[in-house]
Automatic annotation (TrEMBL):
<keyword id="KW-0874">Quinone</keyword>
<dbReference type="GO" id="GO:0016787">
    <property type="term" value="F:hydrolase activity"/>
</dbReference>
<dbReference type="GO" id="GO:0071949">
    <property type="term" value="F:FAD binding"/>
</dbReference>
<dbReference type="InterPro" id="IPR015904">
    <property type="entry name" value="Sulphide_quinone_reductase"/>
</dbReference>
<dbReference type="InterPro" id="IPR023753">
    <property type="entry name" value="FAD/NAD-binding_dom"/>
</dbReference>
<dbReference type="InterPro" id="IPR036188">
    <property type="entry name" value="FAD/NAD-bd_sf"/>
</dbReference>
<dbReference type="InterPro" id="IPR029021">
    <property type="entry name" value="Prot-tyrosine_phosphatase-like"/>
</dbReference>
<dbReference type="Pfam" id="PF04273">
    <property type="entry name" value="BLH_phosphatase"/>
</dbReference>
<dbReference type="GO" id="GO:0070221">
    <property type="term" value="P:sulfide oxidation, using sulfide:quinone oxidoreductase"/>
</dbReference>
<keyword id="KW-0809">Transit peptide</keyword>
<dbReference type="Pfam" id="PF07992">
    <property type="entry name" value="Pyr_redox_2"/>
</dbReference>
<dbReference type="GO" id="GO:0048038">
    <property type="term" value="F:quinone binding"/>
</dbReference>
<dbReference type="GO" id="GO:0070224">
    <property type="term" value="F:sulfide:quinone oxidoreductase activity"/>
</dbReference>
<dbReference type="InterPro" id="IPR001763">
    <property type="entry name" value="Rhodanese-like_dom"/>
</dbReference>
<keyword id="KW-0274">FAD</keyword>
<protein>
    <recommendedName>
        <fullName>Rhodanese domain-containing protein</fullName>
    </recommendedName>
</protein>
<keyword id="KW-0285">Flavoprotein</keyword>
Amino acid sequence: MDVHHITRDLAVAPQIRPDDIPAVASAGFRSILCNRPDAEAPNQPNFREIERLAGEGGLVARYLPVTSGRITDADVAAFEAAADTLPKPTLAYCGTGTRSATLWSFAEARRGRAVAEILAATKAAGYDLKGAAPRMAAQAGAAKERTEQRFAVLIVGGGAAGLAAASSLKARKPDLEVAVIDPAGIHYYQPGWTLVGAGVFDPAVTARTMASLIPDGVTWIKAAAVAFEPQRKAVMLEDGRTIGYDRLVVAPGLKLDWGGIEGLVETLGRNGVTSNYRFDLAPYTWELVRNLGGGRAVFTQPPMPIKCASAPQKAMYLSADHWRRAGRLREIGIDLFTATPSLFGVKEYVPPLMEYVRRYDAKLHFRHNLTRIDGSAKRAWFTCTAEDGTQSTVETGFDMIHVVPPQQAPDFVRESPLADPSGWVEVDPASLRHKRFTDVYGLGDACSAPNAKTAAAARKQAPVVAHNLLRDMGFIEGPDAVYDGYGSCPLTVERGKILLAEFGYGGKLLPSFPSWLLDGTKPSRAAWLLKERLLPPLYWHGMLKGREWMAKPRRAV
């Protein structure tokens, strides 16, 4: 019997069977609440048999059948009444326990309990009900209007894209009422983590307090968004509040799904398993690289899209260059396992990258997706997909492994009305305006535009969103601003040299400098200095401050 305790007085479980009744009584339960209709599945025990045996065991049993996926307000009210009147503690059950947990969550929301508390309680019991958060908030709002604030522009996300958008808006219209929703106390310059993992940057230089970066005149709502209600022009927060808006900008970044690789969470940060995609792990990458005297180094890349698609390769190149300089390269075998069918998505950059692959004698394994890892045994398993679609499992050992997790839009975005079929915020790729809700805009990693998900892309997107949003509000005249898909991947192929890949939609090259000054198709010292010395100040003091250096938006013809 699989019992999940939500509160002291209520637990939920998958379908129980008649021979479970003695165990239910022995566990101290005094009542049973059945939320599963009879005959919902073959060989399902009939409630009358459960009720008879419960009575013989001194338990009270009640039948409250609810159709899966069709919970009504009447069902919630009935569950609330039953939970109040049945002898406690109560065991509620259905097919998997999810229906009973969901009924409890809606009933608690009706009582006014904070959505965040409800979600925490159900998650602790083993049920992730984030997708039901909008309904929970609606249940709470049915008794009392909970829209506590309203802003002309509401921005969800205080990362690079969100703060840049806020600053660009205030630079154009200083008196505009803007708020940013983000629960984080620290803001990170994530492009710097590659250099932390190579021993070039100290981790501390990539972190600043969020409070120090919120633009002047912008309200910071330090909470997490859990749901969107575009019909009501409102965003629901985890604490139960609802914040209204005239215009909405969605820029929450993406979700790193560390749990999407079996065994990864348990071994991250030890056993030679690391990733530059986390602030606390990038220093461990450098520790492993510095101390590896021989053996096998494996680098992985998941299916696209991911943030900074070149980062997995950059970790490999910088590590290999360190081993080359230390005279250890011949003692270390290097393998790149990537789920992609090629080394890089823009063909002009592949030949110079292949020169470094040969220099470091790295082995490339295309269409290999990491699915499982055993850190203590130092083994990793990949699903290899052949060109004809057939799949096989490939196992390999490692002495160190740099892992990049699969990535997707945040849950509350994927489950919202704003999402496209793939879960990203559905925007027009040129204007970055939502395709169905014209008062909503999206930018950064969570939007559906088919550009590379990089900070450089957000730097170019923010002015476009600011211009078009203010134009729609009547503060700016003329045509839309247009985003051309610009993204930049500074490929650190060795310490002191970078291949500066700059491109837009369709892989079109979009260099920022004339070729005589900086040819992005050739590794150069100039590009390294740009990455190491100029881009961090450009980020902190330009992009996040609304200074659109080399990012002025182009208007549609």
